[in-house]
């Protein structure tokens, strides 16, 4: 009896499937680092979702430096490259998965940070960079640095401007200043930065942090003063209305 139509074809496909072996097992996702508690994981997950633009449980590589900065870190370019080398599957991927993101945070915590973190925070406060873009209006920053704390002199600022132009962190066309990159260069221990005639003491973390704190305190006191004046005026107006019989006394 001749074989039924299609039977040989099915047998051939089955043989090929057997030769190829079993299908690959799904990738096993490792548990999160033990150093993170539920609150930490919730915060990290929320940030991850906020940068998952396509809703695919992955974020783009270029988002990682910004995400780390929002957690209070100030990763150098070399550190970002090392994180990608350590935790991404290969050089061809252009996204980061959630578990990889967690291990990157853990690694950066273990590596620690130097003075750049506090300096960056102070620059962000003085430059009103509320979105943590790392970019500031240099003219606005100049006014703040020459007003708060131990002010920079005009000569010191010019020297600083020359350095910013030299390392291409200042764009004369639009006045933007990449202060995060500038701080990274200052901390690079590169000979060309050490020899620059700039007063680095006035730009260290303690001075800048004190400037930012003083600025915030004075702004708070100014707001409180205005609020007290407003309440005093309202009370005076209320007392006049009571005296005129327009409203009953308390």
From TrEMBL:
Cellular-component GO terms for this entry: myosin II complex
Answer whether the UniProt record assigns the keyword Repeat to this protein.
Answer: yes
For bias type Pro residues, the affected ranges are 21-33
Keyword set, alphabetical order: Repeat
Q: Where is the composition biased (Basic and acidic residues)?
A: 216-238
Region Disordered: what ranges? 1-33, 212-250
- SUPFAM superfamilies, per database record: EF-hand (SSF47473)
Please give the InterPro entries that the UniProt record associates with this protein.
CALM/Myosin/TropC-like, EF-hand-dom_pair
Read off the PANTHER family from this record.
Answer: CALMODULIN LIKE 3, MYOSIN LIGHT CHAIN 1, 3
Q: What is this protein called?
A: Myosin regulatory light chain
Q: Which organism is it from?
A: Danaus plexippus plexippus
